[in-house]
Amino acid sequence: MHDVVRRRVLVTGIGVESCAGGTPDALWDALSAGRPAISALELEQPLPCQVGGVVEGFDPREHMSVQQVRRTSRFQQLLFAAAMKARADAGLRTAPGALFVGTGGGGLDEAARLVTTLRHSGWSQMNRLGLLRLLPNQAAGLVAQELDITGPVLTLSTACASSTDAIGAGLRAVRDGTADVVLVGGVESWLDLPCLASFCLLDALSQRPAAEAARASRPFDRDRDGMVPAEGAAVLVLESERSALRRGATVHGEVLGAATTCDAHHPVAPRADGTVAARTIELACADAGLDPAAVDLVSAHGTSTPLNDRAETAAIKRAFGSHARHMAITAPKSVIGHACGACGILESVGVLLAMREKYVPPTANLDNPDPDCDLDYTPLVGRSAPINVAVKQNFGFGGQNSAVVFGTA
């Protein structure tokens, strides 16, 4: 029987694989210092995009068997590693009740390899497990098999809002009593030639040269010229307060509310006035039972693209009214790039750590603020501040909007 009183949902575990490092502390070191973890990409063919956020030194054999490594692709391995780290951090000894994973493209890089082999060597030479290495749901399936998760195991694909939506799904599962403990995560591995070339054709990626890698991602700066692609994964353990207290779990924060909407406007461009994105933020705050004026920090989507940054500024102004000019805003993609379907969960880790450290991370490379982006985006230098309530918002192709509200536990 479900609890009559709405249950509190706590974050009790964190696992990370990012271009800034493989631990929450490494990620926080980069974010808090405003130190970009972006480097030159090694590509088989030259592209206008030359820089990205690579998860360096990742060895899946540290987390899975040799047989599992052989059967899986990079996006599956990244998620698996993050999930095992989150489980260990939470000290879980029983199977979670559910798993929700967000990803934009899944194994698109594997699909490209299969097509290349088919054209050059014939179908019989294709990887026999190729299909299983590319299907988006297989990363979640791999984790479910390892941890014996027999409840809901769902993969959400809402572009750059995917893993933020996964957090929302996990929140509702725990709050509504579907499960006491769930894993929520996101993963993206899209630094392959076909994916990057496709984004280049949309003029979506920064064209700064490799020598300027650290300065390429410039959210809300007038000299921004596009997204900086990045790969990575993160997983959070969400747990009911009752379960966390019973286990004596360490609590990293609380998920207070979430919401998702759709612009219903354009395949890649946001509504310029930010009306629907603003409503997403308002709905998330309402779901948390909070007035938007209670928010201390907004972790912006901040893609470093001309249209999105202006539309997001408009959305923040609409959602928060006069409070928009009195709260802190930070843009983590200036440091860790754009991990597409994984960006929301990676940036949510940053939010949880900012709340723990009572520190607003800076927006790197914000040297010359765009006059149309005239809010306090914490340019270049972070600052100490009490952060009791924070909003993480992400927006994706197809008009996908998602927001999550976090609080201190």
UniProtKB/TrEMBL annotation:
GO terms for molecular function: 3-oxoacyl-[acyl-carrier-protein] synthase activity. PROSITE patterns: KS3_1, KS3_2. It comes from the Bacteria. Pfam families: ketoacyl-synt, Ketoacyl-synt_C. Keywords: Acyltransferase, Transferase. The keyword Acyltransferase applies. Belongs to the thiolase-like superfamily. Beta-ketoacyl-ACP synthases family. This is Beta-ketoacyl-[acyl-carrier-protein] synthase II. It comes from Streptomyces cinnamoneus (Streptoverticillium cinnamoneum).
